Amino acid sequence: QVQLVESGGGLVQPGGSLRLSCAASGRTFSNYNTGWFRQAPGKEREFVAGIGWTTNYADSVKGRFTVSRDNAKNTVDLQMNSLKPEDTAVYYCAVKPLGSSYHLASTYFSWGQGTQVTVSS
After folding, report:
1. 22 contacts 34 by C-beta, under 8 angstroms
2. How many CB atoms lie within 10 A of CB 23?
3. What is the chain's alpha carbon radius of gyration, rounded to the nearest angstrom?
4. Residue 28, Cβ density class (10 Å: 0-12 exposed, 13-18 middle, ≥19 buried)
5. Does 99 have pLDDT greater than 80?
6. Could you give the CA distance from residue 4 to residue 21 in angstroms, rounded to a whole number?
7. Which residues are within 8 A (CB) of 63 and not within 5 positions of it... i.e. 6 or more apart?
8. For residue range 33-90, what is the model confidence (pLDDT) as tens digits?
9. 3-class SS at 64?
10. Bridge partners of residue 22, in order along the sequence
11. What pLDDT is attached to residue 77?
């Protein structure tokens, strides 16, 4: 069983940056695809970014967000730059087997508890 814990959320002004981190216990991230998802109030959970053998991004965050993995620390980070009010959501990390599509939330078997990101002036 993989236990995931997100950190790094908070309140930031439009145009600002935040770095989210997902820490795992029980397994190493290098054995899985890791996805970042977000869910805003009244909306469905949506894919943001993923990393496994490759990286993948939602169109809405391409060029602004970067996902990376630190094997020594066993963390997967999401660097978010040029943040917009529409990025406001609870952000979750999740893991699934390597080699499968990143985008479907239903294919991930372990999720963190989420961290709130609020972009507002």
Report:
1. yes
2. 18
3. 13
4. exposed
5. no
6. 10
7. none
8. 999 999 999 999 999 999 998 999 999 999 999 999 998 899 999 999 999 999 999 9
9. coil
10. 6, 76
11. 97
- What single-letter amino acid sits at 8? G
Instruction: Provide the pLDDT for residue 26.
Output: 76
Q: Which amino acid is it at 76?
A: V
Please state the length of the chain.
121
Other CB atoms within a 10 A radius of the CB of residue 115 amount to 22
With 0-12 / 13-18 / 19 or more C-beta atoms within 10 angstroms meaning exposed / middle / buried, residue 104 is exposed
What's the confidence (pLDDT) of residue 30? 82
User: What pLDDT was estimated at residue 25?
Assistant: 87
* Structure-token pair, residue 28: 């190493």
